[in-house]
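Mods, move this if it's the wrong board.
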Amino acid sequence: MLDFVPQPESDGVELAPRVAAPASAMRWQYARSSGPGGQNVNKVNTKAEVWIPVAAIAGLSERATGKLRSLAGKRLTGSDEIHIAADTERTQEGNRAAVMQRLRELLLAAMHEPKPRRKTKPSRGARQRRLDAKRRRSETKARRRGAE
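Not the wrong board. Structure tokens:
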């Protein structure tokens, strides 16, 4: 099951480690789901959707905020809000947790800094082994051709 646990704080919701947003900035909406649920599908609003303004997310660096906007793709609305929806679970609570988990994964991906690449050169021995292998391969192919 999903590991999202709603935070009891009234001032904000922790979205990722050291990243939070005020609960008042998050706009929730529920609708009838197209997912699993049997007869419940037609009468219970289990689909969960959230809109959260990018500017309301505190704790992200400018670089991470820019990366978040690019990673969000079509989930970023014209009014600079991230829109995430879930209708995979049978209950409203489950779908709400799924939405928060997806938002968390998006934020973690935006916060991830790749390790900088250090340029390296092959050692003299490695270069010699490569040339020897090429020479052996060339000689093998030359023997196949025979005398021309």
